[in-house]
Amino acid sequence: MERTKILVTGGAGYIGSHAVVELYNAGFLPVIVDNFSNSREQVLDGLEHILGVRVPVHNVDCNDEEALRAVFAEEGNLRGVIHFAAYKAVGESVAKPLEYYRNNVGSLLALLSVMREFGVNALVFSSSCTVYGIPDQLPVTEQTPTKKANSPYGATKQMCEDILRDIAAVPEQPLRTILLRYFNPIGAHPSAEIGELPLGVPQNLVPFVTQTAAGIREQLTIYGDTYDTPDGTNIRDYVHVVDLAKAHIVAVQRLLNGQGETVETFNVGTGNGNSVLEVVQAFERATGQKLNYKIGAPRPGDVPAIYADVTKATAELGFTTTSTLEEALASAWHWQQALDQKK
User: Fold this and answer.
1) What does the pLDDT read at residue 343?
2) Which residues form the NAD(P)-binding domain (predicted)?
3) Do 230 and 244 reside in the same domain of the chain?
């Protein structure tokens, strides 16, 4: 039976590559669009090792509307899109706001124009818990008010959500969208063929942890220990990337089956918050590796604490996470070891 084609922008990236695996395992044919500005082409080899096939790949910048149009025309019969492609580092966005607005908002506008032209009206959008800003209450639900974003990155996600709601409100534009607000993805595929592969200095905690444990970096810096949290370090909701990827499959199926509202929003997390120090301790327990770390100054744009209420995703999508924090961190360590062996 012919597989249903789903376009995956940023499909060679960290979350995107794991979603490609889950899409294929669920019977879809993922079609990757990626310009490899924040990913490496070796990811494609990892995907082929896992799946046993080379899925279609187009080296295209999502801001290039003409190139996107050529992909839609060549592939034909695309049924839906998962839009991952975006710059994603909070701290970097504070230093480079223009680049973040141009890339993150511009790529969505280009994609939506081409989708409309080709009659593709199902979109899963990669959003973020940063849209909540600094919340007044925890955990955050989908009804928690979105406040002024704490970074340009968060602001781009708020803008993109607003754009999608405005378009979906026009009867002549039959776009159906699911906004997945991610919390903090960590870990790697159990095969250790794909995982988080930052270019240059990592922007996220766990690659810093694994690279420090591997001796690539001398010391882990924990950015701030004076936040209003039990141990003074930031609290986040750390979700295994494979669990997060599976949420996209449920969302795609919901859109293609015509279920739900025109625009729906779901938090995707574990429902638990862990501090940076708790992550360090959990990593040491899970791997037996002792981490050398120091306390540094807080980073601009960082929210003190945020974690998800996942009641809605469980009730309406039937989605729950299955991996523990220790399991996710152990998988990240296996991935780091696999990377070191390939050098």
Assistant:
1) 66
2) 7-329
3) no
